[in-house]
Write a structure and sequence with these properties.
Blueprint (H helix, E strand, L loop, with lengths): L3 H15 L10 H6 L1 H10 L3 E4 L16 H10 L6 E4 L22 H10 L1 H4 L1 H4 L1 H11 L3 H11 L3 H16 L6 H6 L6 H17 L3 H12 L7 H16 L7 H10 L4 E4 L5 E4 L2 H6 L2 H27 L4 H6 L1 H9 L2 H6 L6 H5 L10 H8 L1
Parallel strand pairs: 1-2
Antiparallel strand pairs: 3-4
Length: about 375
């Protein structure tokens, strides 16, 4: 589960970067919430596109906001009558949306779109001329789901036999639902239900995970156990030797880049440039859900402890040596601030300016409760 305070802070920081009209009076998340009427007026008077992706991560299974601030933020974004527009993506509709918000259900790709995507992926693309029947079977069994098509492409890297094994398992899983898979190829539209896609995806991902080497498998579980907001390449690489030693009982630490590249080749993760100087690792929710529960239960306490101690060490070790502006712009210090103990904030309070302590850019408010628990126990 992600740290939702971090998500709120990132959103506030981006708003302040892009909308200087909000003014210098906004120094904390609370200030920002109080200034939401100003944000609504800015959206009313300007032409701005606001996009929030994967908003379901801020909702409980009961469809309640985990961070209550989001209710007022969404209201501010959706109640103006100007030319600005707001797009959100979510696997579940947030509560109490304005009646002016249009809801569009995003379905799987059409056959033409799925074929185009497959033709742009290196391993499947090579089969278009040599093994068209295999491509058709792959399209039929992936039913237009982009992630399934990516997983099929990754399987095809191991050759026709490797892909065929995955397709055979998918065919068996689909058969349990009695879905007419031929209809997708015949009509160009899938009739598969969401829960069917989820089952096929988790089965396929579980099979891919089971075929990983020891290093890549351990890294996959590390990425699944860490807080969403902390899947940054530099942070994960830093804790990798500690995690390996504690989980695997010592020995030489495998090369981090090699393990990460194995996950990328298997289409289990990818990396994207986020904020300047920050490379984030993305792991699809279905991949996280496919990681073996027993292994994850033993991995999470280790990850929480190691990450908490890393953040605390970084924060304590650098706070007295950096100026407020340096703290405000240093990625490691921001991460350390997010993960450090509240007691460290109290201990160093005279050294922390209001801006670096509370501003959305340098906020220390969004501390992971999981990490804190390991340092306060």
């Amino acid at each position: 589960m992600s740290s939702f305070g971090q998500a709120t802070n990132r959103f506030v920081r981006r708003c302040l970067e892009k909308l200087p009209e909000l003014g210098s009076a906004v120094a904390t998340v609370k200030d920002f919430i109080d200034f939401l009427p100003v944000l609504t007026k800015v959206l009313q008077d300007s032409r701005i596109l606001v996009v929030l992706d994967n908003l379901e991560s801020a909702l409980t299974d009961g469809n309640v906001w985990i961070d209550a601030d989001w209710s007022r933020i969404i209201e501010a974004l959706t109640t103006h009558t100007g030319l600005s527009r707001f797009i959100l993506t979510s696997r579940q509709a947030p509560p109490n949306l304005s009646s002016d918000v249009a809801t569009l259900r995003v379905t799987a790709l059409s056959l033409d779109e799925a074929t185009l995507l497959a033709s742009e992926l290196g391993n499947l693309a090579r089969l278009f001329d040599s093994d068209w029947e295999v491509v058709v079977r792959a399209l039929q069994l992936t039913q237009g789901h982009p992630k399934l098509i990516e997983l099929a492409d990754a399987a095809a890297a191991g050759g026709i036999d490797a892909l065929s094994e995955h397709l055979a398992r998918a065919e068996t899983a689909w058969a349990a639902y009695g879905t007419d898979l031929r209809r997708f190829v015949q009509t160009g539209t899938s009739i598969a239900a969401d829960e069917e896609y989820w089952k096929i995806l988790t089965d396929w991902a579980s099979s891919s995970i089971s075929q990983l080497g020891a290093a890549a498998s351990t890294l996959a579980h590390l990425l699944g156990a860490v807080e969403d907001g902390d899947r940054e390449l530099i942070l994960i690489a830093d804790v990798w030797p500690l995690i390996w030693s504690r989980v695997r009982g010592g020995g030489d630490t495998p090369d981090f880049i090699s393990a990460f590249q194995e996950l990328e080749v298997a289409s289990l993760v990818d990396s994207v440039d986020a904020d300047p100087g920050t490379q984030r690792i993305r792991m699809h929710p279905v991949i996280v859900a496919s990681l073996p529960g027993a292994v994850m239960d033993s991995m999470r306490p280790v990850v929480d402890d190691v990450m908490a101690r890393l953040f605390y060490s970084l924060f304590r070790g650098n706070l007295g040596r950096l100026s407020h502006d340096q703290i405000d712009h240093c990625g490691l210090m921001l991460a350390a601030g997010r993960g450090s103990l509240p007691t460290s904030m109290k201990e160093h309070k005279p050294l922390i300016s209001r801006r670096s302590q509370c501003s959305p850019r340098g906020s220390l408010r969004a501390t992971s409760p999981r990490y804190r628990a390991h340092l306060t126990s």
